[in-house]
Amino acid sequence: MVGLAEQLDFEENPLFEQLIEDILRDGYSILDNFFPQETITGLRKDLLDKYEEDHFKKAAIGNRTNEVIKTEIRGDFILWMDEANLNPTQTGFFGKINELSAYLNKTCFTGILRKEFHYAVYPARKFYRRHLDTFQNDDCRRLSVVCYLNENDWLPEHGGELVLYLNDENGKEYPKAVFPMPGRTVIFESQKIEHEVKPANRQRLSITGWLKTR
Ligand SMILES: O=C(O)CCC(=O)C(=O)O
Ligand SMILES: [Fe+2]
Known about the structure:
It is a single chain. By secondary structure, the protein is an alpha+beta fold. It contains 4 helices and 11 strands. The strands form 2 sheets. A 7-stranded antiparallel sheet has the order 1-9-6-11-4-3-2. Strands 5-10-7-8 form a 4-stranded antiparallel sheet, with no helix packed on it. A hairpin with a 5-residue loop joins strand 7 (162-167) and strand 8 (173-178). The longest helix is centred in the middle third of the chain and has 21 residues, at 88-108. Bound molecules: 2-oxoglutaric acid (AKG) and fe (ii) ion. The site of 2-oxoglutaric acid (AKG) has 9 residues, from strand 10 and strand 11. Pfam families: 2OG-FeII_Oxy_3 (PF13640). Its cofactor is L-ascorbate.
């Protein structure tokens, strides 16, 4: 008798299975070793080089075709990644993201066809007020992915936590703080989980993106 898993043409990936189980149960997953250490170090260096060279711009509210800058809502600087033009570290990052998307499509019929990612730098004391990652003219975002690229001496007392607003079994809202520890990856349902970024007392680095339908 051949099991169902063997009939499907894929190998079970324990890390992806963990992520799927978390998201189905809680709407989010926190993974501390999703990407290899050298990917994190390489991305951090690439981000800092580009930030130094002045390639970043002030992040806006809305999507790329409908932008307004409101620093009282968000104060970060971003640089969109160009998937047609990747260095080896970025290729490693997107390789894993593509592998995850294919796995989700195969096992959960998520229909992920597109993605968009940007680097983000929050200077000390900047924040992003509570929001949902969807826009009036773009409801295609399914999963939000945030991977922290902070320096290795980052401590929880430096702040900069991501706060996810969740509901308990009685429907009562409670905040869940996720500290931006280097290499930590948070994945959550873009259309369901409101969240905010609290100010840190030092520069906060990340790569953030969305897995999208259509
Ligand atoms: O950096 C984070 O922790 C979350 C960023 C975020 O919410 C966003 O860019 O939409
Ligand atoms: Fe967000």
